[in-house]
Amino acid sequence: ATQRTFSMIKPDATKRNLTGKINAKLEEAGLRIIAQKRVHLTPAQAGQFYAVHKDRPFYGELVEFMSSGPIVAQVLEGEDAVAKNREVMGATNPAEAADGTIRKDFALSIGENSVHGSDGPDTAAEEISFFFSGLELVG
Ligand code: CMP
C-alpha cells in the first residue's frame, strides 16, 4: 500500500554537498519527496529527536554530530515506503551496506552515515510530526 516515511539527510552529507545525489537515489527507488526542509538542529532538538537512544553509549556523540551542521528533513511517499527507504539507505554501518545503497556510496562511518530513515510506520508518523505540520505535506 502507499505509505509515508520520514527521512533525514545528515550533517556529514549536507557538508559534502550530497543532497541532490541522495535525492536522486531516493527518487530512482520510486519514492516521492512530498515535503523537505533544511534545518540546523540545536543539541536539545537533536537529543529530543533521538530520545529513544538516550541510554546508549553513543548518544552524546550522536547528539553532538546531528547538531553540528544542517540536516535535510524529508517526507517520502510510495509503495511500502518505510521498507523501500531502508533498502535504498543500506545497513547502518557502511562497511556492511550493499552495493548501490546511499550508505555504501556516501557514508563515512557508523555515526556519520549520511541518512536516517524511520524503522516502522508508527515511528514514521511520530518523526514526520516532529518536523512537519499537515499543511507542509504535499503529495
Ligand atoms: P540512525 O538510523 O539515525 O539512528 C541512530 C543512529 O545512531 C544511527 O543511525 C547511527 O548513525 C548512530 N549510531 C549507531 N551506532 C553507533 C555507534 N556505535 N557509534 C556512533 N553512532 C552510532
From TrEMBL:
It is an enzyme of class 2 (transferase). One of its GO terms (cellular component) is cytoplasm. Its main location: cytoplasm. The active site is at H116. Its EC number is 2.7.4.6. Residues 2-139 form the Nucleoside diphosphate kinase-like domain. It is found in: Cytoplasm. The keyword Phosphoprotein applies. Its cofactor is Mg(2+). It comes from the Bacteria. ATP binds at K10, F58, R86, T92, R103, N113. Pfam families: NDK. GO terms for molecular function: ATP binding; metal ion binding; nucleoside diphosphate kinase activity. It catalyses: a ribonucleoside 5'-diphosphate + ATP = a ribonucleoside 5'-triphosphate + ADP; a 2'-deoxyribonucleoside 5'-diphosphate + ATP = a 2'-deoxyribonucleoside 5'-triphosphate + ADP. GO terms for biological process: CTP biosynthetic process; GTP biosynthetic process; UTP biosynthetic process. Keywords: ATP-binding, Cytoplasm, Kinase, Magnesium, Metal-binding, Nucleotide metabolism, Nucleotide-binding, Phosphoprotein, Transferase. Belongs to the NDK family. Homotetramer. Major role in the synthesis of nucleoside triphosphates other than ATP. The ATP gamma phosphate is transferred to the NDP beta phosphate via a ping-pong mechanism, using a phosphorylated active-site intermediate. This is Nucleoside diphosphate kinase. It comes from Halovulum marinum. The lineage of its organism: Bacteria, Pseudomonadati, Pseudomonadota, Alphaproteobacteria, Rhodobacterales. The gene is ndk.
